[in-house]
Amino acid sequence: MKILDKMILILFSIIILIISIVMLLLVFGIVSYTTISTLYAQVIANATATNITIAISVICILLAVKAIFFGSTSKSGNGLNGEGILLENESGKLLISKETIENLVNSVAKGFENTQSVTTKVIVDSQNTLKVFVTLMVLPNTVINELSINLQTRIKEVVKKVTDLDIKAIDIKIKNITTPEENKEG
């Protein structure tokens, strides 16, 4: 939830709380109607208090319109939901989490014999496209350029096949060259 949405929710909650308390006080006779009407008359009589009341009312109306008509909702079709990609069709919705895609990419990368210690980060940008960042260590006899091209191609193929999502970019970072013994110890 966005900060503005939270502020709107807090503001309206406070307003409803105040109105509810005043209504309960009136119903149980703790406060008389004449007290409330006298207070209201004094606010209206004072020009500064009237202007402040009008300003607060206009702000509340604008915030209400924003919350009702422009609230944070997911888009139809492919939509970003902070947690991953939201897919919609006539039967319902499917949320594919970033963790799911990261685990899928990790399993593909670990399937290559010269890769060691794979970590993945997936980013969904504002156009709902995927960017994948893979960090790995490789064995000394690895041809890094060939490995990266094969890895990028295979990751795109597997993610497309499993999730029906296209990856915009796959960035690979070779963290280090290691030996199999180093990997078993760490």
Largest sheet composition: 3 strands, antiparallel
Number of helices: 6
| Category from helices, strands and their pairing | alpha+beta
Quaternary assembly: single chain
Number of spatially distinct domains: 2
Distance between the termini: 40 Å
Shape: rod-shaped
Uncertain runs? 74-81
Fraction of helical residues: 40-55%
User: Regarding CATH, which class of the largest domain?
Assistant: Alpha Beta
Give the amount of beta strand, in percent. Answer: 15-25%
Strand order of the largest sheet: 1-2-3
CATH topology of the largest domain: GMP Synthetase, Chain A, domain 3
Q: Which CATH architecture of the largest domain is right?
A: 2-Layer Sandwich
Radius of gyration from CA coordinates? 29 Å
> What's the total number of strands?
6
Query: Could you report the average pLDDT, rounded to the nearest whole number?
Result: 83
Order of helices and strands: HHHEEEHEEHEH
CATH homologous superfamily title of the largest domain: ANL, C-terminal domain
What attributes characterize this protein structure?
186 residues, alpha+beta, GMP Synthetase, Chain A, domain 3, 2 domains, 3-stranded antiparallel beta sheet, 24% strand, rod-shaped
Written overview of the protein:
The chain has about 190 residues and is of the alpha+beta class. The protein folds into two domains: about 70 residues, no CATH class; about 90 residues, 2-Layer Sandwich (GMP Synthetase, Chain A, domain 3). It is built from six helices and six strands, in the order αααβββαββαβα. The strands form two sheets. A three-stranded antiparallel beta sheet has the order 1-2-3. Strands 4-5-6 form a three-stranded mixed beta sheet, with helices on one face. Strand 2 and strand 3 form a beta hairpin. The longest helix is centred in the first third of the chain and has 25 residues. The protein starts with a helix and ends with a helix. About 15% of the residues are buried.
